[in-house]
Amino acid sequence: MMSVINSYPNFKSTERQDYHSIKSDFIQDHVIKKGVPLVISKTTSDWNTEIFTPTWIKEHYSNLEITVRIDGNLKNTEHWTVGKYIDYLNRLNNSNSSNSNSNNNNISSSNTSNNNNSNSSIYGSNNNINNNGNPNSSFYYRKDIPCPPEWNDFIDNKIHTFLREKGEGDLVSDLPNYLQPSSTHMGIDGGDYWSPGHREVAGSVGYNLMVYNGGVSKTFWFCTSSQDIVAAEKFWKEKNNAVIDNDAKQMFISLEELSRASFPIYFIEQNAGDLVILPPGSIYQYFNYGGQSLKLTWNRMAVDHLEQSYKSIIPMYRTIRKKQHFPVKSMIYHSLLKKIIQAEEYQNDLNNSNNNSQQQFLYDFSKLINLFDHVLWSERIDISVMEEQRKSSDESVSNYNETPNRRLCFFL
Questions:
Q1: Which of 6-10, 160-164, 289-293 has the highest mean pLDDT?
Q2: Euclidean distance between CA atoms 213 and 227, whole angstroms
Q3: 90 CB contacts (<8 Å, ≥6 apart)?
Q4: How many whole angstroms separate alpha carbon 84 and alpha carbon 299?
Q5: Residue 353: in which H helix or E strand, if any?
Q6: For the packed helices 97-108 and 115-123, what is the interaxial angle rounded to 10 degrees?
């Protein structure tokens, strides 16, 4: 890990915290306010269960359908089942077991002064990079797999509520049940799986927990901060000639190219039990290495990045016809309603309220008021124009033989 960071001046290590000592205030300050990634280690240290294994998934959900791209080719897709995909990964692991051992030696002995060596230690070899900068992966599936209900039931009692989807502080929980989308998914990554540069839906906060790695697999992440959203969007667009949210034109940028970015790249080596938290709007890519891994992923929405979602990301979605997933305007409205109720409670119990809690409440309340005002203004209908008398007018027609008796009616 340090060999990669030392090889590229703009690469930075990502802070780690122990799961058993993490506090919600720290995540709010580090991930939401400062906008930098965070890794929470030992998240699954007391998870004594067999449900987070490929074997269990195949036994219980073998028939779930996924779409795979052959050699990462967008136009070359096939519909597989989860069982078929896991069988393929098992065959791949068995055939490459001897190569994996030699590649692991490359990681430990990589030359810190040679960028090419650092690059090959992650990708296995420089020959594993194609002309587009994308790692050569035999298969690449894009669509996340729905999370098994057994997984959801298990993590309800294992993960802090301030980390969970629809838990404490997640604005999705403010929505009526019928409007609450689900973002919890399962990911099955092979030993050569890569995820191209992209960001979480609607610029939300991303959570990625590795629940299984077979004892050897690890995932290398390359992430940007929330503070560098504009610069990162421009950087990826220059490389790919497309906006970052266009799923049809995503690409994996090589380490050499990332090292030329004008902003920091946060590097993460994720192992089993590591929960990676991606800040709002962070653009990231990752590469799975060494064998199969299972990941549990979900998203949360916070007040701080609602403005970015509503004013910047969602309008971009409309231009490229991408599904919004989160009802952002409804979220603003219902979260504001909840804050109004809380304001009455604060007023009744002002002396016993925590000062930091009050400050955060006032900040969130002010943000939501301003956003809701913007929503109302943008959604308004100017009925004054309907009071004017509408008249049809003669249209200037040069050839009456083609359009006889034609009239033009103006509705402005």
A1: 160-164
A2: 32
A3: 54, 292
A4: 28
A5: none
A6: 150
CA distances from 122 to 185, 207, 213, 326, 327 (A): 26, 23, 16, 35, 38
Three-class secondary structure of residue 39 per DSSP: strand
pLDDT digits 0-9 by tens, 258-297 = 999 999 999 999 999 999 999 999 999 999 988 899 999 9
**pLDDT tens column, 115-161:** 444 454 555 444 444 444 455 555 565 557 889 999 999 999 899 99
Neighbours of 328 (CB within 10 A): 24
Per-residue pLDDT at 188 exceeds 50:
yes
Under 8 Å CB-to-CB from 320, ≥6 apart: which residues? Answer: 243, 245, 246
Least confident residue range of 51-65, 252-266, 297-311, 395-409: 395-409
Beta carbons within 10 angstroms of residue 388's beta carbon: 8
Please give the sequence-ordered ranges of beta strands (E in DSSP) within 213-280, or none if there are none. 218-223, 265-270, 275-278
Residue the block writes with tokens 């301030």: 162
Instruction: Check the CA dihedral 193-197-199-205 and report its sign.
Output: positive
| Cα separation values, 241 from 246, 262, 285, Å | 10, 18, 17
Handedness of CA 223, 225, 231, 237 (dihedral sign): positive
Burial 11-43 (b: 16+ CB within 10 A, else e): bbebeebebeebeeeebbebbbeebbbbbbbbb
Look at residue 130 and give its three-state secondary structure.
Answer: coil
Instruction: Compute how many other C-beta atoms are within 10 angstroms of the C-beta atom of residue 7.
Output: 21
Q: Cα angle vertex 147, ends 142, 149, to 5°?
A: 165
Dihedral sign for Cα atoms in the order 243, 244, 245, 248: positive
Euclidean distance between CA atoms 78 and 401, whole angstroms:
56
Looking at the chain, the whole-number percentage of residues with pLDDT higher than 90 is 55
**Residue 407: φ, ψ to 5°:** -125, 150
Ordered DSSP codes for 153-168: HHHHTTS-TTTSTTST
